[in-house]
């Protein structure tokens, strides 16, 4: 009797068709999908960048659009110190008012805060960087983030946390925390001194670092030319200059009771400005009288004096 023996090796292949073979797994096209996804992401980023750039251009275009009434003498509106000749040109030799807008001229604005508002307000951060120029060179008193109002009832001060900018901060307010409208007067006095002297408020390289100390030291000589802005080249009325300097130092007095009110400051500055404008008009009249055209007209009309 023969037995069956199972031998796995060497058996002939009985199924010659592919149907008997196990199915082969097809490779997933990962590389193709990754490439398509990368292209899609790049396109989305480019579209977003284009939209944002277009929006930014439209905003900048609106901000940089020229005004309907351009200034007499346009100057780049970058943050800078204007030269004396530029100021002369902007104001048409001080005939055109520069400084009305917002609350108006700065000292008018402070006077309005102190006497025109109900309740009265104190700005608390009057300084040159908070006095802005618009595209027509009109002054705007800005940044009322630290301003405080006085409660209705006639209180002369409020007790509050000390806030302000170094150099412009009222020393009495700093010592006592008692805020009054005279604190703004002090800060405005410092701004006046900056304008008069063209000196920084605090300069550690000076023997007297604070501008009030420096002015007091220079006043010992009695020569206002050492204090006035050298860019003016002496083209100012010394009497008016002394009045403005005295007013600025009065505003910056360490004692609030010795400082003038903003209403008094307005009156004094108006008088000084009128005096300076009168001097300039007289000088302009003399220059026109002695101009070649004027002399020629006098010759033609026989109005020149005849030597005897």
From TrEMBL:
Name of protein: Protein kinase domain-containing protein
Family matches, as InterPro entries: Kinase-like_dom_sf, Prot_kinase_dom, Ser/Thr_kinase_AS
Organism from which the protein derives: Brassica campestris
One Gene Ontology term of the molecular function aspect: ATP binding
Alphabetical list of Pfam families matching this protein: Pkinase (PF00069)
Transmembrane parts of this sequence: 28-52
Gene3D superfamilies to which the protein is assigned, alphabetical: Transferase(Phosphotransferase) domain 1
Domain Protein kinase: 1-273
Keyword set, alphabetical order: Membrane, Transmembrane, Transmembrane helix
UniProt key word Magnesium: no
